[in-house]
Amino acid sequence: MMKYILTLPFLVSTLAFADDSAPAKGGNYTQLILMLGLALVFSYFILWRPEQRRRKAMQKQRESMKKGDRVTAMGMIGTISKIQENTIILKTCDGSKIEILKAAITDVQPSTTQESDEKTSES
């Protein structure tokens, strides 16, 4: 009951100022359109543009993959054994091979010529 008694002054003041804050009849939508446009521009530069750049960089990285590169896909690390159109075959540390979609690759570490020479001499 005490709660309702304490909120009574706030309710009365809200009703007293409600007429002053009512929007004008006929409405002016230019301010609303301006704010929506500003929000869209802001979200483009803060959200969409960096995401497009990140996607393009990942696509470029996936296209530059070659046999022998170390990649990370869904937390699994392996060496590229074979590259197909939409998938790659990874060779893991124990020698097993796994087929993974190229889109699942999150990181590519290009192999150096020294590592490539060591791998070819082992085979």
Note down, in words, how this protein is organized.
It is a single chain. The chain is of the alpha+beta class and 123 residues long. It has 2 domains: 26-63; 65-122, SH3 type barrels, CATH 2.30.30. The protein has helices spanning 2-18, 30-63, 113-122; strands at residues 70-73, 76-83, 87-91, 97-101, 105-109. The longest helix is centred in the middle third of the chain and has 34 residues, at 30-63. The relative contact order is 0.10. The mean pLDDT is 80.
Total number of helical segments?
A: 3
**Could you give the distance between the termini?**
84 Å
Number of strands: 5
Q: Report the C-alpha radius of gyration, rounded.
A: 30 Å
> What would the average pLDDT be, to the nearest integer?
80
The secondary-structure class comes to: alpha+beta
Number of domains: 2
Task: Compose a concise summary of this entry.
The protein is of the alpha+beta class and 123 residues long.
Which helices and strands appear, and what pairs or packs with what?
Layout: H1 2-18, H2 30-63, E1 70-73, E2 76-83, E3 87-91, E4 97-101, E5 105-109, H3 113-122
Antiparallel strand pairs: 1-2, 1-5, 2-3, 3-4
Q: What characteristics describe this protein?
A:
123 residues, alpha+beta, SH3 type barrels, elongated
